[in-house]
Amino acid sequence: MPSISFAIFRSAGVRFGLPLILAVLMIFSLESVLVSFSPYRGLLLVLPYVLLSLVILLSQPFNQGKTALTALLMMVAFYIIQNYLQSPLSDNQTRIIYVLLATLLPLNLLQLHLLPERRLFSRFGTGYLIFLVCQLAWGALVVNHFAGQDLSGLWDSYLYALPDISPLPVLLILLYLSVGLACGSAILKRNHGYDQAIFTSLLFAGITFSAFDQDFISSTAFSVAAVLLLLNLITCSHELAYVDQLTGIPGRRALETELKHLGRTYTLAMLDVDHFKKFNDTHGHKTGDDVLRLVAQFMQRVRGGAEVFRYGGEEFTVLFKGKESNECIDHLDQLRQDIANYEMVIRQYDDRPSNNQKGVKMRKKQSKQETVTVTVSIGLADSFPDHNPAAVLKAADEALYKAKKSGRNKVSQ
Ligand SMILES: Nc1nc2c(ncn2[C@@H]2O[C@H](COP(=O)(O)OP(=O)(O)OP(=O)(O)O)[C@@H](O)[C@H]2O)c(=O)[nH]1
Predict the structure, then answer these.
(1) Ligand 1 centre from 277 Cα, in Å?
(2) Which residue from 270, 276, 356 has its CB within 8 A of the most atoms of ligand 1, so it is best to mutate?
(3) Contact of 377 with 274, CB cutoff 8 Å
(4) Which atom of ligand 1 sits closest to the CA of residue 287?
(5) pLDDT tens figures, 14-42
(6) Distance 124 CA to ligand 1 centre (A)
(7) Which of 20, 125, 289, 350 is the most exposed place for a label (fewest CB within 10 A)?
(8) Which pLDDT tens digit goes with each residue over 256-301?
(9) ipTM, interface predicted TM-score of the complex
């Protein structure tokens, strides 16, 4: 059941909460995990490279440029940690590199968060790579310049840390918290896959720099982050394939997959918005889109184990597994009534028709909150006597036609 099993990873709550839960688990189980995996510790040192490379490669076919760049940033950061930050932080040069990296990584992630989504292999991607190389060169110059100088004044003032808690300067802890807050709230607000990729990377990089004295903290944290980035990519690709972009419910492909795995008993219902063409002509295509989203929302509340899909255009499908049509008709009639009784507030869009007389009339008497109601017609059929899903779908379509013929806003069998 692809549409069901992955839906959970697409929810904003899981996109935000899962990295946090895994971070807490990692912190509390790090030592015991390292003891259990002590013979394979060498593997942990290459695991982030392998997983992050996979993320970069898999980002390409799904046009997830931001996720690819996030993984690239993490890979560069991990390389620097492994090759330049393996001596104690009391060493001046190591400390400069540590602070520079711990500062530039969240700033780069914040920048990615603010940039639009683009492909990695594009002018945008090339520009970003040049920018990254320039930062590395600048960083190398800064390190060379300041390595031999006494920076104790800087460490004791702006970059003051509380060594009993963390070697990370307080100012940088605040930077991680504020960038984390911005990226975390973006997940809850717009729920994009790349927001989770950036938030996850920030969280696990923050943990790494905060607990930098812990053995294997970077390889463990960067590996967990890379696994989450991979999961995020798989979820995004699943979303592209199975979820209808407009309504957010599973689309036709998901329905077709489900129809191949049905048992003997099931009911299918076809739902169609009444006079939708007229509605679009009067209120505009964008308001029509709002209606489709609204209908999808109502459909998701249907009880009785209903699975809902957008069939295409203004048509939707409801699937009840293990149920005959008599057991489903009340649920569908309730849906029909709920939609018919709902007064939808019309949002103002510029595409509302200017030459349509009805549209002009409506706008003239428009109050601040203009509302409309829509109705739907539903036809349903179950898998008796013919178990073939195509035949059941056809029968549901014929029942829908009957509902339309008998005056619309009806449920027919
Ligand atoms: N806004 C919007 N309209 C769509 C979308 N997909 C299809 N439509 C419109 O849906 C309308 C369907 O019209 P018809 O098939 O004539 O059906 P109807 O007007 O609902 O009439 P009845 O089904 O007989 O009640 C067409 O005008 C399409 O342009 C969409 O994604 N968004």
Answers:
(1) 4
(2) 276
(3) yes
(4) 1
(5) 999 999 999 999 999 998 988 888 888 88
(6) 38
(7) 350
(8) 999 998 989 999 999 999 999 999 999 999 999 999 999 999 999 9
(9) 0.96
SS (H, E, C) the chain: CHHHHCHHHHCHHHHHHHHHHHHHHHHHHHHHHHHHCHHHHHHHHHHHHHHHHHHHHHHCCCCCHHHHHHHHHHHHHHHHHHHHCCCCCCCHHHHHHHHHHHHHHHHHHHHHHHCCCCCCCCHHHHHHHHHHHHHHHHHHHHHHHHCCCCCHHHHHCCCCCCCCCCCCCHHHHHHHHHHHHHHHHHHHHHCCHHHHHHHHHHHHHHHHHHCCCCCCHHHHHHHHHHHHHHHHHHHHHHHHHHECCCCCCECHHHHHHHHCCCCCCEEEEEEEECCHHHHHHHHCHHHHHHHHHHHHHHHHCCCCCEEEEEEECCEEEEEEECCCHHHHHHHHHHHHHHHHHCCEECCCCCCCCCCCHHHHHHHHCCCCCCEECCCEEEEEEECCCCCCHHHHHHHHHHHHHHHHHCCCCCEEC
